[in-house]
Description:
The chain is of the alpha/beta class. The chain has three domains: 3-61, no CATH class; 74-150, Immunoglobulin-like (Sandwich), CATH 2.60.40; 162-403 and 525-534 and 544-710, Alpha-Beta Barrel (TIM Barrel). The strands form six sheets. The protein has an eight-stranded parallel beta sheet with strand order 21-18-15-12-11-24-23-22. A five-stranded mixed beta sheet has the order 3-10-9-5-6. The chain is globular. It starts with a helix and ends with a helix.
Amino acid sequence: MSALDQLSELVGLSRAYHDIYGAERVTTPETQRALLAAMGFAVDDEAALGRVVHELRERTWRELVAPVSVQRTGGGLHVMVTAGRGARVKWRLTCEDGVVHAAESAELPVLEERDGRARLRLDLPEVAIGYHDLTVEADGVTATHCLIVAPRSCYVPAALAAGGRWWGVAVQIYALRTGTSWGIGDYGDLAELARVVGSAGASFVGVSPLHASFPHRPGEAAPYSPSSRLFLNWIYIDVESVPDYTSSVPARELMASPEMQADLASVRAAALIDYATVGKLKRRALELAFACFREKHLGSDDGRAQSFRAFVASGGERLRQHVLYEALQEYLFARDPAAWGWPAWPSEYRDPRGPEVTAFADAHRERLEFFAYLQWIADAQLARAAATAKAAGMRIGLYIDLAVGVDRAGSETWATGNLYALGASVGAPPDELALKGQNWGLPPLVPDRLRETAYAPLVATLRQCMKCAGALRMDHVMALLRLFWVPPGKDATEGAYVYYPFRDLLGILALESVRGQCLVIGEDLGTVPDEVRSALAEYQVLSYRVFYFEQEHDYRPKPPEHYPRCALVTASTHDLPTLKGFWERRDLALRGDLDLYPSDEMRRRQEHGRGVQKERILSALAERQLAPFETTRLEAPLSQELVRAMYTYLARTPSWLLAVQLEDVLDVLDQANLPGTVNEHPNWRRRLPMGVAELGASEGFALLAEALRREGR
């Protein structure tokens, strides 16, 4: 085996994979070298590769103990210690709750030997789930180890485990409309939606990612390319419910001005969201609210001020770095619009711990405080929406989406850029959803560097996203096992898979799920290895089953009873056509218009398959007395009766959860996002045609809710 292949094997870079059609795709040496270089390895020549391989193999024999291990409770806990054979090993285990276990051991079991050194097994006492600190001393060397003890599976509500089957709705938060929103859905609209659908019997309301975006680039609409997953998007703040806004005289005067009223009327009436104008209007209003907060509360250090300071203190260094990034980006962008993100900043500002950055933070304390204020307001409003959902009788409450990664120019990569392969991008190989593959433009975490942090970034991300969530949907859950890396300057057909410590990441997911009492749904669409499906089921991570894809080889829909229990079922997703768009072939027409088919033959095959699939769907519904079979309906517009029939079909599955896409209830034709496009299609900009209050009073929604109740949902 060549040194290039050896290094690839050591770092988890696959040398081949099978695509969705079963064909083997071999990773070329050029792709191997490009991705290894993105990880930071020297790959200039065979000698350099050989040195790297030798260094990696020797590293595990030099370290006394690994930086971290993740182990499941109930199976016996142990760590591997590398020391001289027969070495006396002193250890001290400090548990999260303060309990300490310590001992000195000799003649530990030998697992492997080499050159006078041995890998020894140190057995530890059973301790509770959590994050524990282990200190080991042997041969005059002391090292620390993070022992993460995980539960056997993720959290599942007892009522679900006992046979319950619940339904809820899924929506893009930005698409919501109420009488008080400013041209974009907000946290207040989310609370109102939860109240409305909760009163109809829904157990959850699912939303697109709420991660922090880019204030200076409000037109960057994609919620799956955030600046940071650790903080919230302030553009979703419900301005008119911010106490400091309503008590600010300048803010009230602004609101009453003809100019402001005209701008608000314009963005509220627009069918597509004008992110730039909405961001400008909200920023102006929130500036006035913050000025009022500083004057009335921070100056007197009253209860509201103390609550804000407590929030800032709890956010710690991560919050400080995020708001520092926001302030720096604002400052530098105002001077030079080419400074689109930290890679384009002057070099002295690219190091978050550099002297120029420190000086900037000292000189702009109030500005940092403003961006912290926005996070505080957003956090409180999201918590209020979660509380409203529970008060409305929802068993789960908010069901929040977690993006697979972060933008390379955002605050998270600026603060912890050393953890990322900034030259590579995450994507997906060609499949039925994106026939030319996908390049999402997000830099991947380097597996070894993530492990060296004891997985701290993952832990922090899960805690933030689960804080207000009763359920968490992990976008592209296969990332726990492997990610498809695309080399710089190449397209997705030249990518390769990089593997991650799957069982470690699953264990941490289970631990945070149990602690947060948060159900986990894994978006397992696309090319999914069998080991992912089996492990997710073992850990009770719900599978994500889409009606369009759950079919037999002849396009016939899979019978409801054949769906798994541990799953969420839905008709469609934000990346797929709405039911109306599917039925009327809108997605196929768009792909053709935008040249997204790799060949005419592929286009003809999909168009033929759609007609057959529609016929099979009608036949399956007729067999179960859900809809009459009429061939003339194949080309007729989709009716709400047929929409209810399809959701009733899904309601009969044993799967724990059923998600209703609100677009289907409202006869929306176009999908939220068309994979494979950026600006060619108005992705992430469409608003719902009906307000939240109108939805609650609509006959279509009431009839669907009643149909789901009749099926035991």
